[in-house]
Amino acid sequence: MDRLRLTGYAVAQLFLAFVLIVLLVLWIVGGVLVVIWVGLPILAGTVVATRWVANLHREMAARTLGQPVPVPYRPLPDGGFFQRARSVLADPMTWRDLAWLFVAPVVGILVSLVVLILLLGIVTGFIWWFATPPLMVARAHFDRFFLAYSRTEKLEQRVQQLTETRADLVDHSAAELRRLERDLHDGAQARLVALSMSLGMADAAFDEDPDAARRLVQDARATTAGAIGDLRSVVRGIHPPVLADRGLGGAVQAIALDMAIPVSVAVRLDGRPPAPVESAVYFGVAECLANVGKHSGAANAWITLSHETIDGAGVLRAAVGDDGRGGADPESGTGMLGVMRRMAAFDGTMSVSSPAGGPTLVTLEVPCALSSPKTTPSSAPG
Amino acid sequence: MRLVLAEDHALLRAGLIQLLEGNGFEILHAVDNAASLAVALRDPAAEAAVLDVRLPPTQTDEGLRAAIEVRGARPGFPVVVLSQYVEQLYARELLASGVGAVGYLLKDRVSDVAEFVDGVRRVAAGGTVLDPEVVATVMARQREEPRDRLSPREQEVLALMAEGRSNAAIGVRLSVTEKAVAKHINSIFTKLDLPLDEDDHRRVRAVLAWLRV
Predict the structure, then answer these.
(1) With an 8 Å Cβ cutoff, is A333 touching chain B?
(2) Strand B26-31's sheet: what is its strand order?
(3) For a tag site, which of A30, A321, B16, B168 has the least CB within 10 Å?
(4) Same domain, B9 and B39
């Protein structure tokens, strides 16, 4: 039964080998004709057809080997023809497909013919019985060698991706530190200097002019109140106290309450995500809500927080939706780009669905596990 | 008036003790962590409590939880919760823990001694004292909702009621006579469909209705 299935693949691959030859010719013709533009549509069609045929071979290789052979193409960007074309050209798998096209017809015809002749030769049937599985497995290995990334290549891609997100993160935290430094320098620090001056003058004035001294002390108190307010807003920007107190669910409820429009919050979390993830998702949701308030013109908004386990890996999902005018473009604001970078640092993603006229839905997803419910200690005074 | 005080910072605790004792309060217990606070709040001699939100061991919201718990065990027990920051979420939880006799204030309000002491007294007398910052957030939200039937003046009066001010104080703040304030308040009660009741409770109920707790 299994051998018959493998022989079936051999027949399919024999016919497909001729399709591959046609595709190879189209590649060459299209490549040459690019100089007079007609080549472009030919190449575009050929790429699509090549991917389709290559996927058929991936599927057959996966079934023969009993292991998944993933479809490795980079996702196509939304956008015009040239943007898509650029992405396809930059995808190394496009060129590996092409290399495979050069070799696969020969190998395919040879292997398939051997299998078929052994079966149809009747007396050679027993050789077919023994030779078919190793031959087809070898063929599958051959296809996988070209059509799937090896472990090393996957690791290289991962290193590349980590390098990029790390660089983003370093830039981001450097910018955050500069912002904090500026906030403290222009805010609390300046006020404390003024405070110390007022107190110094009051000290000097106490004996001669008690009224002036009293006024200076009153000024000093007002300045203190300002400094405390500044420090409070700086602390909120670093790590909101309510996030430390109540975790992600409570903190999201707290910002929802501060919104001018009604925001319903549904939290389905059985524990707490790791603190850095919690913080990243919190600031992501806060940014989304700020956009809802500033740009959407919505009358209602809603937030859901949930955690699911897919294929043994946990995913934290935060969705922020509103019934506003839509048309949100994640590329246009620095805020949303910041959220994307924060998510990328945890291998998370942000997706935005916002057709003109609304509604808008922003989904943040971060792979992570939940810990059992507990509160995190903090050394900050309350 | 005998108070329980919870504050983990030694300097602030000493300051608060000095301030409250200097204004005629008696500090029954001054504690610096959640476990001792739970014991102190069981003392039947205690008449009110002033609590910091963050206390050891976890430095999160022990003070708030203790406040809600004690008001469950001793309904109407007056509690003033102090914090370095205010959250509407916490204000709602406190207000939902019973009618009246709660205060929720930023810690730096303590620097205005007269105002702070007055606030503690009003809470002990069954009133509600919310920090102006909480009130301001709710005000911002109300403006977005035209279906609210209160006039702008009435909203101002209600906001000051939420901060725990007396009719006289509201009159001074808005530069109107006390009689005019009383008129606004009556109209608020009517619009919010609040039944006739002891005046203080109606005031508290008006604030609760306004916050939609």
Answers:
(1) no
(2) B26-31, B2-6, B48-52, B79-83, B102-106, B128-130
(3) B168
(4) yes
Beta carbons within 8 Å of A310's beta carbon, 6+ residues apart:
none
CB contact residues (below 8 A), chain A span 244-263, against chain B:
244-246, 250, 253-254, 257-261
Residue B64, burial from CB neighbour count under 10 angstroms (0-12, 13-18, 19+): buried
Smallest Cβ distance to B87: which of A221, A242, A261? A242
8 A C-beta contact, residue A241 and residue A382:
yes
Last residue of a domain, one of B79, B104, B130: B130
Residues in B touching A259 (Cβ below 8 Å): 141
Answer yes or no: are the C-beta atoms of A47 and A53 closer than 8 Å: no
Residue of B nearest to A260 (CA): B141
CA A51 to mean position of chain CA atoms: 24
DSSP β-ladder status, B102-106 and A360-367: unpaired
| Mutation target among B32, B53, B55, B84 for the A interface, most CBs of A within 10 A | B84
Are both B77 and B168 inside the same structural domain?
no
Cβ neighbors of A36 (< 8 A, separation 6 or more) are none
Domain CATH number, residue B10: 3.40.50.2300
Nearest-CA distance from B89 to chain A in Å? 5
pLDDT of residue B71: 93
CA distances from A271 to A371, B58, B151, B195 (A): 5, 17, 45, 44
Rounded-to-integer distance, Cα A215 and Cα A205, Å: 10
Given a cut of 90, is residue B148 above it in pLDDT? no
What's the complex ipTM? 0.78
Domain boundary among B130, B155, B178: B130
pLDDT at A58 over 80: yes
Phi, psi of B56 (to 5 degrees): -65, 155
What's residue A336's pLDDT?
A: 85
Q: For chain B, what is the largest distance between any 2 Cα atoms, rounded to a whole number of angstroms?
A: 50
In what helix (H) or strand (E) does residue A117 lie, and over which residues does it extend? helix A92-120
A72-96 pLDDT tens trace: 888 777 667 888 888 888 888 899 9
Strand ranges, E, within B75-127? 79-83, 102-106
Structurally, how many domains does chain B consist of? 2
pLDDT digits (tens, 9 = 90+) for A281-338: 999 999 999 999 888 888 899 999 999 987 778 899 999 999 988 888 877 777 888 8
Mutate to test the interface with A, among B16, B89, B211, B212 (most CBs of A within 10 A): B89
Q: Which residue segment(s) compose the domain that B147 sits in?
A: 134-211
CA distance B196 to chain A (A): 31
CB contact under 8 A, A382 and B58: no
Shortest Cα–Cα distance, A252 to chain B (Å): 10
Based on the domain organization, do B170 and B186 belong to the same domain?
Answer: yes
Q: Which of A228, A235, A382 lies closest to B59 in CB terms?
A: A382
Helix, strand, or coil (residue B131) = coil
Q: What is the pLDDT of residue B199?
A: 60
